[in-house]
Description:
Order of helices and strands: HHHHHHHHHHHHHHHHHHHHH
Helix content: over 70%
Number of strands: 0
Oligomer: single chain
Shape: globular
Distance between the termini: 5 Å
Largest sheet: none
Radius of gyration: 24 Å
Low-confidence stretches: 1-13, 512-518
Strand content: under 5%
Number of helices: 21
Amino acid sequence: xxxxxxxxxxxxxxxxxxxxxxxxxxxxxxxxxxxxxxxxxxxxxxxxxxxxxxxxxxxxxxxxxxxxxxxxxxxxxxxxxxxxxxxxxxxxxxxxxxxxxxxxxxxxxxxxxxxxxxxxxxxxxxxxxxxxxxxxxxxxxxxxxxxxxxxxxxxxxxxxxxxxxxxxxxxxxxxxxxxxxxxxxxxxxxxxxxxxxxxxxxxxxxxxxxxxxxxxxxxxxxxxxxxxxxxxxxxxxxxxxxxxxxxxxxxxxxxxxxxxxxxxxxxxxxxxxxxxxxxxxxxxxxxxxxxxxxxxxxxxxxxxxxxxxxxxxxxxxxxxxxxxxxxxxxxxxxxxxxxxxxxxxxxxxxxxxxxxxxxxxxxxxxxxxxxxxxxxxxxxxxxxxxxxxxxxxxxxxxxxxxxxxxxxxxxxxxxxxxxxxxxxxxxxxxxxxxxxxxxxxxxxxxxxxxxxxxxxxxxxxxxxxxxxxxxxxxxxxxxxxxxxxxxxxxxxxxxxxxxxxxxxxxxxxxxxxxxxxx
Length: 518
């Protein structure tokens, strides 16, 4: 994005006025709305599937459609803002997000629901990187750490509040309200945007000189890749014609994106920024951050549902512990951003996230939600430290005029990390589940006296040998699940730990430097 004008509204004063803070609040609220809606339907998904007549496999598209659209639009938001102006872009995005939320809420079939979710993803995705842009444009350097802290907190809180809010609404009202709840929030958001942001004239030069090959390539490449990652495991990867076709679409898309990078006068996204060691390190750590953030919110509900028999609301309460540190640390984050070196903060955050995973590698079949309290709390601390200071590192690792593109890449990388995690964890879980089941079965001697005594006792209490065998099979399966989840947490911790040395490539933001993204 372009460099900020020296005469920008907040740039010339030491303290921002009330309208600037209203704009920052609007940006933070929009970012939280967009991240919350990724996961708010997860708790209600079984109910939604039943009411709109979707199978389990079809129902996964209700979640996938949003994520695919969001990943596509996030890196495009820098170009869209240059084209339309910040306020116009956000007003369009919030208004359309409201309409698509209503469409989802009144949907009675899968097609309508998916159209609504795609629209939500496209419109909501634009709200995430632009929140940092508002901080950069409306706050003076001395107050930008406060805006960054607010932004970081909302991005963390969105995914962890989603299951809790969705679970409560589904249990107490109806799944429809998981979408209708967006309407009053969007109305407030529109009011804040009108008050807090000045109007900017559209610059149609960016439309005439657009890198259309790059734009089309990004849509096809990121869209195709995300669907392959999300659906590949369920479709048995390249045994599925759909996965093969989407892989070809993704390859063609990335080829077009590369063409745009090489030949367009103004590429839609400056991917050459990845040649910077500092920025490349930030992107890799963003992938790891997304992996832990979305991976843990995927694995823990599974464990609690399958092993502990938790309902949606109980699971949401466990997930919410990850968001508690954001509330507690909020008053101290601006001071920490000013005083603590990026390397120390990000390194500590990544180590704490790795530790939070390693704490959960000794789960048992008797483990309930309470066993995750400590690890979730630590994970929240690690995530808020890493998120906040990686936002700062994103800006510090590139030239000022490239900060908007860098923000788009960073936010897209975080979401892609989540997609990589979900795809990888699904395949890894199946493999480890099969491995542990076979290993336990191999240790059982069918003719052994102890096993025969155990089965005879079960048969006597259950009424038949067949019931005893089914119980034994269920016990093996249950223990294999528990061992698998222990393996999953170990792998997430090990991958996070492996990225820690990359902090050595980070450099601090110059004191009192502006975070200008345009």
